[in-house]
């Protein structure tokens, strides 16, 4: 696998592979002796596993880390845990015939995050020390829609830990493989106050519920029957399935009853849909550059004029809840 990764990355002129390691001990020596801008890390390694090494790395020498994981239920659970610990993203070990596409995505990801400070904005020790409000002020009938991609696991976990148990009804589209989304929603449901689960056809979230696009073969859209989930099969949109653009665009008929947020992520998925939402009367926020792992998606929306404001992640939950409350200043 190391040979495959090296060959795939060295084919990209933007990257240089400066070291490789087969164990945590070797990796620690490399990081101590070689100047490194980004790291790929296997979840499964001899001796100390990748998660324990990641935890120690983020405590001692934080660097952008992309996990390489098996596409199995166990691998998915470990990958989500790794991203919660501060890894930027997780790439599936390439399947037969898909290595070129996998390594092209990995190369783009490494280039976008190389050298960035990571896991310093919201270290794990600080998350959860701020208590979510116990109850939500009187709901004004607006639904919250959130789109996220690279860095979204940590951002969404941070955000929803500040949502009360009776939060406004919320839909989320996060770019992830189907198995990872299943693991992520189960994890979130166990650590935040609201109920978190994957959306099913015909669902309509009530107060205290956060529904995620299940991904796989489907986009999550809002049906013409007010705010119900519709799982739509079809090609990728803006390079993704599930697509944030598809979710935002489907909500345009309900524009004045929508609060939308676009969080950290590569590319521009969600920007066009958010612009149309804003034109339809929605309140639209983007995560600011300082708190993003990758500022691509919010930047694209900001450049189109689709945002009310750029908001730091620590302030995002407050802005969203305020916009959904009758008790606005």
TrEMBL record:
Q: State the top-level EC class.
A: hydrolase
User: Which CDD domains does the record cross-reference, listed alphabetically?
Assistant: CheB_Rec (cd16432), REC_CheB-like (cd17541)
What are the protein's GO molecular function terms? methyltransferase activity; protein-glutamate methylesterase activity
Active-site residues annotated for this sequence = 149, 175, 269
Q: In this record, what's one Pfam family? A: Response_reg
Q: Supply the name of the protein.
A: Chemotaxis-specific protein-glutamate methyltransferase CheB
Query: Carries keyword Cytoplasm?
Result: yes
Give residues where 4-aspartylphosphate occurs.
42
Classify the source by domain of life. Bacteria
The record ties this protein, via PROSITE patterns, to:
CHEB, RESPONSE_REGULATORY
Which terms under GO biological process does the entry name? methylation
Response regulatory domain location, by residue?
1-108
Q: What is its EC number?
A: 3.1.1.61
InterPro entries documented for this protein: CheB-like (IPR008248), Sig_transdc_resp-reg_Me-estase (IPR000673), Sig_transdc_resp-reg_receiver (IPR001789)
Tell me yes or no: is Nucleotidyltransferase among this UniProt entry's keywords.
no
Q: Where is the CheB-type methylesterase domain?
A: 138-327
What organism is the protein native to?
A: Maritimibacter dapengensis
This protein's UniProt keywords:
Chemotaxis, Cytoplasm, Hydrolase, Methyltransferase, Phosphoprotein, Transferase
